[in-house]
C-alpha cells in the first residue's frame, strides 16, 4: 500500500475508501486510553492514535519514517512514540524527535510522518484528511445539536461490513423507515406512499416528503460544514419522555472499501430536571429499542452485494442518493487529479515541529 499522500491513489480508490479534504469522526474518545497506542484503519490506511501526558490526542500514519515499521508496535513515551524496530522517536506532529542509535542524524527535526489535525467534541475524536500535506485544514463547524448547551445527547458507534457510501445513502433514504423499521415504536405510523423533493439549505440540502411531515422519518438534511453529516428528526409520543421530537446527528467514516464506522448522536432539547428524566429514560428504556433499529439497518446493508449499486433501477424516492453519488464521484475525480499533479510526496512537511495538532475537549454527555 502506498503511503497516504501517494500520487498513485486513484479516483476509484478515493470513491471506495473515502474522499479527502474533509473532517471525519474517527472513533469514540473512549477508544484512546492514557498510556496506550490504538491502531485503527481509516480511509483504507492504517493509523495510530494516542494521548500524551496532558490528555491531548495525536494521530499518526502507522509507518515509521526510518524503515516503514509499524508504529502501532511502538512504545508510548508520553509526548511521543518510540519505534520498537530501531527506537526512532516521533512526536504527535509527525516530527522525528530523536534517533537513539545515531544522535544528530539528519532526519531529526524533520516532519516525516503524516499527522492529521485532531480535535475532540461530543465524545468523539475528529480528524482532517487532506489531499495536500502543506495545506491547512478547512474550518470545521460542529453540528449545532452537539454544541448547544440546551440539548442532551448520547453517542452510539458501530462498525458495519459494507461500503461507507451505503451507510450514508441509507440516511438519505427516508422511505426505508416506513418499511424496514415499520415495527419500531417510533416509525410505525405514516403513509406507505410518498413524493419527495430536494430543498437547498445554507449548509447543504434537505431531502423531504412533500405530503407528510411530523409523522415518521419524513426528512433528512445533508450538511457540509467542513465535515459531512446528516440531521434528522423523528416524532416521539409524550410517553417517550420530555423534549418533543427525537433528533439524530449521523456521520459515517470509511474504514476501507468494504467496511465503515457509523456515528449516531441521539439528542433531545431538554434542560434542568427534565434533562435528567430524559437521560434516565433513554438509558433504561429507549436505548435498546434504538439499537434494534440500527441492527435492522446493519443486517440489510451487510446483505447487499459490494457492487449492488452497479445494477439498480432507481426512481423518484432515490433523488437524494443520486445527487450525493454525482457529487462524490466528481470530488473523487478532482482529488485524484490534484494528487497525481502534485508528484511524489513523503506525506509530511519537512520542517521543525510546530503546534500542528490541537485537541478541543468538551463533554457532551454530562
UniProtKB/TrEMBL annotation:
It comes from the Bacteria. GO terms for molecular function: 2 iron, 2 sulfur cluster binding; metal ion binding; monooxygenase activity; oxidoreductase activity, acting on paired donors, with incorporation or reduction of molecular oxygen. PANTHER family: 3-KETOSTEROID-9-ALPHA-MONOOXYGENASE, OXYGENASE COMPONENT (PTHR21266:SF60), IRON-SULFUR DOMAIN CONTAINING PROTEIN (PTHR21266). InterPro entries: Cholesterol_7-desaturase, Rieske_2Fe-2S, Rieske_2Fe-2S_sf, VanA_C_cat. This is Rieske domain-containing protein. Residues 335-366 are annotated as: Disordered. Residues 24-127 form the Rieske domain.
